[in-house]
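Help!! Second protein's tokens look totally different from the first
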Amino acid sequence: MTGFLIALLSGALMSIQGVFNTQVTKTTGVWVSNGWVQLTAFAVCVAAWLFTGRDSVMALAKVEPKYMLLGGVIGAGITWTVIKSIAALGPAKSALLIVIAQLAVAYIIQLLGLFGMDREPLDWRKVGGLALAIIGIAIFQWE
């Protein structure tokens, strides 16, 4: 149940953050806004690290494969794409498309066992659920 609630909170925070970042971009530009997001996230992480346990930063050198360290680079890309999609489509349509893309890519990662994840067999109910979500987007988009 805790994981479920945390996932709901995560989705809510992503939507709020996307709107905030889009509004900041109107004044500063996309890369200044994106840089601010990453810088303030770094500051929060440093503060949390100082107060919660101080795991070894040097352990990053032991991460394998090394491409797994690209999360921050991907994060900058996520911030940019969310800002641009919200500016073009609005928060609700953007969130719908973002969630569908997340769901589809996550399922492909599980099916193929990519990036060290356990491989999962194809489940037609899950494919049907994804198709139903896509139909939902079409209905939501319909004017």
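Here's the second one for comparison:
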Amino acid sequence: MLLNPFEIIIMIIALAAGTMITRFTPFLLFPEGKTQPAVITWLGKALPPAMMGLLVIYCLRHVSFTAAPHGLPEFLAIGAIALVHLWRRNVLLSIGGGTVLYMILVQLVFA
């Protein structure tokens, strides 16, 4: 299905408006001088670790422990991520390094 130029412009405007609303609403609801509600503060502390746990479970959902390599590349990469993060406390370095290690393991070592 091809869209005509008018539909494309309307779609771009709708996407830009949706993005702007989701970006600006928190600043309008919770200005800098106003105290945040307790539930918002709690969500700010609880959601990041919960999302990381959810992502780990999502990434490991298709790992087969009964077939070779029995999840070994995934768990080696997770271990490397944990060690690098404990060592350097740098999220970008730990996740990037773990991703590179995982790719090397699945493409070259366990291929």
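Reply: Different proteins will give different token patterns, so don't panic. Residues 2 and 8 are 10 Å apart (CA to CA).
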